[in-house]
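Please think about what follows:
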Amino acid sequence: MVIADLGAGEGTVSQLMAQRAKKVIAIDNSEKMVEFGTELARKHGIGNMEYRLGDLEDVPIRSGTVDLAFLSQALHHARHPNRAVEEARRMQGPDLTRWQYGAYLRIAVDNPVIHQVPLVGKYFDIGPVPMSGASSTVKQTTRTLAPSMRMDADLGDWDRSLLNVQIGQSGQIFSSHYKDQWWAWYYARSFPMQYRHVEVKSTLEFVAK
């Protein structure tokens, strides 16, 4: 995939993305940053990264020629942030099916024990799957970071607090609860934490044995 890193600065993020991308075009409006980033890429032998001098609101990239326009801690530098966002949209083109952020950010959750077992271990892992979010968003995920638990604590009303774990409530691979929270975690949905009043019928499930 072709990625445009807008407001790339010295190119730290651009270099990381270049490890997974076909090509990374780093854009910055500072000549010194462009020179520094170009030299840094040359020094590290990164041949699929190109630095260009340009403004966030007038990016020197043709429409519909990139798969991902990336703005990381850069939008607040734009004089008109909405124009910068529209530039990112223009570069990716009007066909939303081409917007492939998930092709860049994919995560895998390996079972820490069973994963080591040859042949069968991989069947108890999850992914790799395309993921939304980033290191600086509420849904904080990166290629090496996927929080094991999310909790939203409402200090004014504890019963409105929300929680979910990454995979499920059981570490037993043959349990029905081994992955029972995975899709809720994946789509950023959480479950209510009932502190004072527990609705037993809606919370507990009794299974006859």
